[in-house]
Design goal:
alpha/beta, Rossmann fold, five-stranded parallel sheet, 4 helices, 16% strand, globular
Length: 159
């Protein structure tokens, strides 16, 4: 489900079935790094949108957590922790953060959610059909990771 009124309304009615929050982590850079920042944003947005379609009814795709790449790491992490606390209070059992910024893996232990880092595939010179194929491949890999996490937690729930 997407973060749009109609689908959030459906989520509110069916929240016991939607146990997974997906939050894209998007860095914003300027000057020389602006194009690379835009490419990472494009990749993560396409990926999470495609994932949401695959997992409709199981996940809620939150708006991107966007931050300045040049900003204070501590401030960014604290703000994300605040998001996480609110997401957890809304009874989501699983939180996945998707990013193309490898720096996030260093900070994963500070969060309760799972950070999934995927290097951005440059899509600007790729045809639409090739983009779809690349994104499908990435989503299939993520499917495995999501399923493992869901199965881990269901084993703990049944013990």
């Amino acid at each position: 489900m997407k973060w749009i009124p109609e689908e959030v309304e459906t989520y509110l009615k069916e929240m016991e079935y939607v146990d997974t929050a997906v939050v894209p982590l998007i860095s914003l850079s300027f000057r020389e790094e602006m194009k690379q920042s835009a490419a990472k944003h494009q990749f993560i947005t396409l990926l999470t949108t495609h994932m949401e379609r695959q997992f409709t009814g199981r996940i809620l795709l939150f708006p991107s957590f966007t931050y300045l790449k040049s900003g204070s790491t501590e401030k960014v992490i604290n703000e994300l922790k605040e998001w996480e606390e609110n997401i957890e209070k809304s009874n989501f059992k699983h939180i996945f953060y998707l990013t193309s910024e490898s720096d996030w893996k260093i900070h994963e232990q500070q969060l309760n959610g799972t950070i999934l880092w995927l290097p951005a595939i440059p899509l600007e010179s790729v045809s639409d059909s090739q983009k779809l194929s690349l994104i499908d491949s990435q989503v299939n890999q993520l499917l495995t990771l999501f399923t493992q996490k869901w199965n881990e937690n269901s084993e703990f729930d049944s013990n």
